[in-house]
Amino acid sequence: MRLVHLSDTHLGFGTYSKVDEAQGINLREADFYSAFQQAIDKTIELRPDAVVHAGDLFDTVRPQNRAIDFALRQLIRLSEAGIETVLISGNHSTPRLRETGNIFRIFEHLDHVHSVHEPGIAKVVVGDMTVHAIPHSTSPSIAQLVSELRPSKDTKHNVAVLHAGILSPEMLYKMDEFNEESVPKESLPSDFDYIAIGHYHKYAKVAPNAYYSGSTERLGFGEADQTKGVVEVDLDTGKVTLHPLKTRDMMDLEKIDAARLVSSEIAAEARARISASSIDGKIVRLVISNVSAEAYRSMDVPSIRRMGGSAMHFELKIDRAEEAGRKASEDAQIGSLTHEFQKYVSGLDMAEDKRKALLEIGAPYFAREEE
pTM to 2 decimals? Predict the structure, then answer.
């Protein structure tokens, strides 16, 4: 038997200000719809016995109508293809109060689609496989429910699907979200054929039989170098294959350490970084660190931003260096106006001849004021 495992599609997610002119919607929102449609395309192409979605189908508890409509249309495609589909709600799509109602109820009328959102362990039998589905839950906790997992003896194969962080001595598979649930790695049952996990956005092998499929699109620069896709699992052979999706590139350019640079040199370094990379239509970030106060004051930030104009989004992050001895200078006695002016001008990021001229022009005014 074969299954497809995907997760964290975050439909409805949108950021930045660019608009998809063809659809009239946020461009990043459109990217997430495209990734999900590709995932469904690939699933139908693979013709698995089942597909499991391990949580966070939507980005919010109350998704907008456009996201709901898109999700429905894609799930109807799976339904019409006769592919058994198991969906569990993740922490992004589970209301804090049960009486609020869950958006997953709208999928319950679809043939071959099994929508699991009530706390506990739901069992869905597909041919000779039992899927043990654990949606996001705080009471009982997911860790408790995982500890209660037992393989069914009525089917040859057993698969568990859950949405949580996994804690192991080697690695913490977490997203550091306020409402995430965590499970110790040692609690994962070794007698299951496969454990499909959602929540952590990077494709990862957690245990010999346990994998994160990762998200289908990038939600931040921490995911810039990650391959996004869907996972195909052959339960008879144990083979696990990641099928990549075509997603918008996200680039973190090499950081500029400006500790010893003046503003003109910083601009030149930025231009070199950007021109050496193909940024057209991509999401790009450039970090400039250790920028002195003097260099920052004379830096042409808008000009550097314009260098990234061909990117879908260009993010410029400037980290200013702490001035050496700032605390000491704050506690020290302030000198005369002329002396303080001379100290200020001496620290400016400018050519020596201009600095000298400024001192010659300004110093007499402060001396006259003191008199």
Answer: 0.83
